[in-house]
Amino acid sequence: MHDLVSDLACYIAEGTCDRWDLKKFLEKVRQLSIPFQEYEISGKSNDLSQAKGLRTLLFLIEPKYFGKRISRKILHDLLPKLRHIRVLSLINVCFRKLPDSTHLRYLNLSGNADIMALPNSLDRLIWLETLSIRYCLCISRLPKSLGNLCYLRHLENSDTYKLEYIPCEVGKLKYLQTLQEVVFSKKRGFGLKELENLKHLGGSLTIRGLENVISREGVEGCLRDKKNLRKLKLVWDEVIDSITNEISEEDFLECLRPHEDLRELGINGFHGSRFPSWIGHHYTALFQVVLSHCSNSTCLPPLGQLPNLKRLMIKHLDNVTCIGDELYGHGGTSIPFSKLEFLALYSMRKLRKWCISSTGEGGVFSSLQGLSINDCAKLEDVSPLFLGSLRMLKLTCCSGVLVKSFRALSSLTHFVAKNISGLCYLSDEFVQSLSSLERLEINKCNELEWLWAEDTTLEHVTRLKSIEIRDCGKLRSLGHGKQHLPCKLEVLRIENCPLFVAPDGMVR
Predict the structure, then answer these.
(1) CA–CA separation, 251 vs 449, rounded Å?
(2) Model-level pTM?
(3) CB atoms < 10 A from the CB of 60, how many?
(4) Strands 381-382, 406-407: parallel, antiparallel or unpaired by DSSP?
């Protein structure tokens, strides 16, 4: 920051905010941030104790100090003297015992690698409204005393990957608005009934351990009335035990219907053979859907009838062999996927057929801008894909037959092909449609001998600026016969292609 700007900021904030070196105003300071450096903390903690009216204390830490443990002198000698402290942020600062400051409203412990479990003494922070433990990677359980924090509004616990138990007492927090991750344990703890009691829950919610739900009690009402919920992810970690459970996975997911205002939905690890009927209907606000590791599902839900869906990712659906009318939901009145902008198909190893009735302007995928297909090696029976709005196309571990299915790629600017079997060259019809292409990348296509066929003309490829080809052991030249380059080519990078012969006049 320029010195003049810094002086102006200090003048305007005088008496409210302070820089560390302005000791004369310390008694009047209300908000303070401190760079975390060990020598500064140990040497200036006595000065900080003069800030009797301090309300906000933020420890700022640079990446090189991540994991450094903060001095006990700060947490247990200094903080009790700051009687009016309300906001305390200890992001990425390590310690083993919580500070004792009963007036705290906001406590941020995110990124603490030392905390194995929050202590039962947590309920001494009786006025706490926000507790953040994001990225506390060693926390495995939450204490029962958490249920005594009756004013708690926000419990930010996303990315606590080892968390495996939440006590049922958390269901008593009737004012709770944020609970980012819920774990249903085999032990008696937080369950559907407790989730139903949290009437004001909103924002983002991930529910793990759904295979541990053994009864239908509370399932129908736990999500349907949560109108403030915007993002929902449902996760099964293991296959459900049909002997001990009263409800099948299909029936359970059918009952676990969220409110219609949901924006994002993810289903991971579902082992039922069919998806619930509610997925493709009534959710006019839904713009992203992710289906992942649903290994027993043989067909896809009618997602094409979601009017505002913009992003769709389908991953590891191992038993889906065909994408057809069931996905588009042609019984509906609207054009399927009219607003979809990004589509990804990953690791669908049995997928052989993709049927599309009509694409292009006014048809299916008329707004599609990005398409990524990865590890779908058997996908060869594909209807012609007229994707005039597509800007990014990435194909990985697929068949060369799939490449020939694309038509009229007039808006495509970036094309990536990696590990494509049976691809000897790009067909003339495919190349002629690349009038807007700016960047072309081809990697590990072991059967590629030429970039394009002998009779291919490049008069339509007027914007191509970069060609990068790597690890193509059979590549001999850019074109079969006389070689020529696109008129605006700026970068030609050929790496690890031992048989390649550079065009005339070009130094390899």
Answers:
(1) 53
(2) 0.87
(3) 14
(4) unpaired
